[in-house]
Specification:
Blueprint lengths: L17 H37 L23 H12 L19 H42 L5 H18 L18 H13 L6 H36 L5
């Protein structure tokens, strides 16, 4: 009878102190999202810049415009010469004057040069922002993992995987050339001047370019950013799974 008269005990979480840790994790999660979008913007701009330059939009600014090849003309025969003389005697309408430098066109050489300078300045700025945001996101994930371990929250397995994927991502973003002189391992956030020099050599030696050199050009400036972007997505998906188990399930 006495056992039946006992009041039912309230249901508590496995970790009663999780509320304070969850509040801290929400703050860390906000900054992680902020750094993530900065990195995404930097990677997308570098990929778009590669595509725009590779299709030849700025060939005029880089002095790579295709030169027209004039075919040798054969000597005219007597009938052609007489027809040309008759045409010369006939009055002809004056054709509208056109400029040789193409200034009348919308995409003139001057406009292309200014646009190229804007693109170079934008890529230099966004590269620094992306490198800084990558390191800050790695530190943010480490802080998130430490708080989850101290609070004995769930989702630690996913958070650990996310942290190491982000560590590999940072290794692909930064250039290894300053650490290992002589190596050609460049980061996904490449230096725009190095890319333009590589593209200039790619266009000028296009006919004699070997397969290895072409693969190196595309691998350094296109495949590497795409690989880094894939690592970033996988790391964030693991982080989101850990966030759901450590925060959302304890609310």
């Amino acid at each position: 009878m006495r056992a039946n008269s006992k009041e039912p005990q309230p249901v508590r979480l496995a970790n009663p102190t999780a509320e304070s840790f969850v509040a801290s994790l929400k703050v860390v999660h906000f900054f992680a999202i902020f750094f993530l979008w900065l990195i995404v913007a930097a990677l997308i701009l570098h990929i778009v810049a590669f595509i725009v330059v590779q299709v030849g939009v700025f060939d005029q600014s880089l002095d790579l415009a295709a030169q027209e090849v004039t075919e040798p003309q054969s000597e005219p025969d007597d009938q052609t010469a007489r027809a040309a003389e008759n045409d010369a005697d006939a009055p002809q309408e004056s054709a509208p004057a056109t400029t040789d430098d193409g200034e009348s066109a919308w995409w003139s050489e001057a406009r292309a040069q200014r646009s190229l300078e804007y693109v170079k300045q934008l890529l230099r700025t966004i590269r620094l922002v992306g490198l800084l945001a990558s390191m800050l996101l790695l530190v943010t994930l480490f802080v998130y993992l430490e708080i989850s371990l101290l609070g004995r929250l769930a989702g630690v397995r996913y958070l650990t995987m996310s942290f190491f994927l982000m560590l590999v991502f940072v290794a692909t973003v930064y250039s290894w050339e300053p650490l290992l002189p002589g190596t050609r391992i460049l980061g996904a956030l490449y230096v725009v001047d190095e890319f333009l020099d590589s593209y200039t050599g790619y266009v000028q030696r296009h006919d004699t370019l070997s397969l290895v050199e072409a693969m190196s050009h595309y691998g350094r400036f296109l495949v590497m950013p795409l690989l880094s972007f894939a690592l970033l997505v996988f790391s964030w998906l693991r982080f989101r799974r850990g966030y759901e188990e450590s925060v959302l399930m304890n609310e």
